[in-house]
Specification:
The complex is a heterodimer of chains A (414) and B (233). With 414 residues, chain A is an alpha+beta fold. Helices cover 53% and strands 18% of the residues of chain A. In chain A, strand 3 and strand 4 (118-127) form a beta hairpin. Chain B has a single domain (2-232), classed as P-loop containing nucleotide triphosphate hydrolases (Rossmann fold), CATH 3.40.50. Classes of the chains: A alpha+beta (414), B alpha/beta (233). Bound molecules: adenosine-5'-triphosphate and magnesium ion (MG).
């Protein structure tokens, strides 16, 4: 249907009727532009809400040990459960669900930390790089712990903003040293946490380092996970529960705990806290898509109208084409082709313009409830598909009218 | 080449029906140059439209080059028009945003001929009508006579069996009319069958046969000695 020959024909028609092509194009381009901006703002709202709502990743699943309440396989009840690196690995390696962020944790609650003459008691936590996202810690200086730090068991520390103020006052701490249990740790970063002062009195170090420094062997105190965002709450709930149940089963087998024992292992699943967020976000998405699509629909109707006028204007031309041997289908094809071509190209302009604007201006936007409005690739692609469909819809009615033109009527001399 | 038998056509307008063609019998051999004459409203254009498959008769049969033309759907009619017929109109009916060359090439586009070949063949026809130098001009940059030449080149482009011309000189002064008729005669001399609807006696005399229509029937059909247009130019 879209042969090279017709491309040439359509391209010729379009380029020789610049004004009407331009007018059609502008209405589609602005429709798509508005749609993209709206979708971007909707994502901005989403980001804004997520960062406002909670201190920690809202969908975090934490696993920590307790004491057995039921004797099992020769063990008496009342046994303290100890989690180890290998337990964390069992969970991460065997999970059927995709894990987004994961980290084990080993901490001491009141480490004596000093720098120069200043000192204080702070919680020291050994973690992996993902922990930054589990805690929603924002780096304001330097960087967070990375995978190499852990592999090389570096004595590096990332300190909370409160710790920085206490120990370093106005000095910049990055690159300087603090004493942790008498050992020198190099400060590589400073973080803030939406949890405020309480969570900013912490010091993060690589977990492997912490296990050596605090003589913990392969012990860990707990582990935290998040799963990727799902389309809706129900799906998120299902995935999250499945993950938790599976982790519990594996760990209980490994650690020889009675499957019915409810005090040996605690799994805190925060997924229910996210319900409102999911609901709010999906409501907002519906709203913005609704407004955006309505805008686009107005654009389509506009284009359809313009095309209809064009077809009317071209009645005689279509009559001539038919007299010379154009089949009705080729007239339909010609008009549809033109419509789709013009809407796609001009829509693409609107899309790119919108994306560029979001790309440039987006990161600067940081209001209370709007943060970094942006549009991801899949949305851009679906808008593009939408555009082609829009062109087809807009061209359909005019094309049908065009096909019904009778050459004898079109060519009658007035 | 053309064979019609007992052709009837009426137009329905509300309750009334206007019987325009009332049993036309008529045939045209290959290579003829026929003029169809008659007063205004006698049904000349109606007949030509039926011959051109732009309209359908109510009754009667029509055979073109051995092919019965009956119950055509739009698609088939379009294909037949493209293959068998070339149209020349009083008001030229060129597409105004296309160059002379592209106008001539249009029937070939609908024949599925490749672009390069279209251009080549169209150029040859423009040369034939003496307008090769005007190939890139739009219709509004051409005189009436030149426009009609482009239209004739376009009608010839698909190499049709029959040319159908409705008042092809109606919009032209007499000198230009004769030049156009000269071209028509040359094309006919090469063996092409041509039907010319006209109500001008001098134009009719330049054909080889005159068919007279009155009130929807043929009242007169005679061969004549052709007046060469060249002598009048
Ligand atoms: N589409 C139509 N609907 C109704 N009546 C029509 C239609 N087309 C033509 N007629 C009528 O049919 C009759 C014949 O029309 P036609 O156009 O064939 O005449 P003509 O011989 O070509 O006349 P002219 O020399 O003026 O062009 C006229 O009375 C005209 O009014
Ligand atoms: Mg007429």
């Amino acid at each position: 249907m879209f042969s090279l020959e017709r491309w040439q024909e359509v391209f010729e028609t379009i380029s020789k009727n610049k004004l009407r092509t331009f007018l059609t194009g502008v209405s589609v381009a602005s429709g798509i532009f508005i749609l993209v901006i709206l979708l971007g703002v909707s994502v901005g709202f989403q980001n804004g809400i997520e960062s406002q709502f909670q201190n920690d990743a809202e969908n975090i699943i934490n696993i920590y040990p307790g004491e057995t309440a039921i004797s099992f396989e020769g063990f008496n009840k009342g046994r303290r459960i100890q989690l180890r690196n290998e337990d964390y690995e069992i969970v991460t390696e065997n999970s059927k669900q995709e894990i987004e962020y994961k980290s084990p944790l080993y901490q001491i609650f009141a480490g004596l930390i000093s720098h120069g003459n200043n000192s204080g008691n702070y919680r020291v936590e050994g973690v992996l790089p993902d922990y930054q996202y589990l805690e929603k810690a924002d780096i304001i200086e330097g960087r967070f712990i990375n995978a190499n730090d852990n592999k090389a068991k570096e004595k590096y520390a990332v300190i909370g903003n409160r710790v920085k103020k206490d120990l370093f006052e106005d000095e910049s701490p990055v690159g300087k040293y603090i004493q942790v249990s008498g050992l020198n740790f190099k400060v590589v970063g400073v973080f803030t946490d939406p949890g405020g002062d309480r969570e900013e009195t912490r010091i993060y170090v690589p977990i492997a380092t912490s296990q050596i420094v605090f003589g913990a062997g392969t012990d860990i105190r707990s582990m935290g996970f998040t799963l990727p965002k799902e389309e809706n709450y129900d799906l998120a709930l299902k995935q999250s529960n499945a993950f938790a149940a599976q982790a519990e089963r594996m760990l209980k087998t490994k650690l020889q705990i009675d499957p019915k024992d409810e005090s040996a292992l605690f799994i805190s699943n925060n997924i229910e806290n996210t319900k409102e967020i999911y609901v709010l976000i999906s409501a907002m998405r519906v709203f913005f898509w609704g407004v955006g699509l309505a805008t686009l629909l107005a654009g389509i109707i506009g284009v359809s109208n313009i095309m209809l006028i064009i077809v009317k204007e071209r009645t005689k031309e279509i009559g001539i084409r038919k007299a010379l041997g154009a089949e009705p289908l080729s007239i339909v094809g010609m008009i549809l082709h033109e419509s789709i071509f013009v809407t796609s190209i001009s829509g693409l302009f609107g899309l790119i313009f919108g994306l560029v604007l979001l790309e440039i201006v987006g990161p600067m936007v940081e209001l209370d409830f709007i943060k970094n409005p942006s549009v991801n690739f899949s949305i851009a692609v679906s808008t593009l598909l939408l555009l082609i469909a829009a062109g087809a819809i807009a061209g359909f009615f005019p094309a049908w009218r065009g096909a019904r033109i009778k050459p004898i009527d079109a060519l009658r001399d007035e | 080449m053309i064979e019609i038998k007992d052709l009837h056509k009426s137009y329905k307008m509300g309750k009334n029906s206007l019987h325009v063609l009332k049993g036309i019998n008529f045939s045209v051999e290959e290579g003829e140059l026929v003029s169809i004459m008659g007063s205004s409203g006698s049904g000349k254009s109606t007949l030509l439209n039926i011959l051109g498959m732009l309209d359908e008769a109510d009754e009667g049969s029509y055979t073109l080059d051995g092919v019965p033309i009956k119950n055509l759907n739009e698609k088939l009619a379009a294909q037949y028009r493209n293959k068998f017929l070339g149209f020349i109109f009083q008001s030229f009916n060129l597409i105004n945003y296309k160059s002379a060359l592209d106008n001539v090439a249009l029937p070939l586009f609908y024949q599925g001929v490749k672009r390069s070949e279209r251009i080549e063949r169209s150029m040859a026809y423009l040369e034939k009508v003496g307008l090769a130098a005007w190939a890139d001009h739009k219709p509004n940059e051409l005189s009436g006579g030149q426009k009609q030449r482009v239209a004739i080149a376009r009608a010839l482009a698909s190499d049709p069996k029959v040319l159908l011309a409705d008042e092809l000189t109606g919009a032209l002064d007499s000198k230009t009319s004769y030049e156009i008729m000269d071209l028509i005669q040359q094309i006919n001399d090469e063996g092409r069958t041509i039907l010319v609807v006209t109500h001008e006696e001098d134009i009719a005399q330049m054909c080889k046969r005159i068919v007279n229509l009155k009130d929807g029937v043929i009242i007169d059909d005679k061969k004549i000695t052709q007046v060469r247009a060249q002598q009048n130019v």
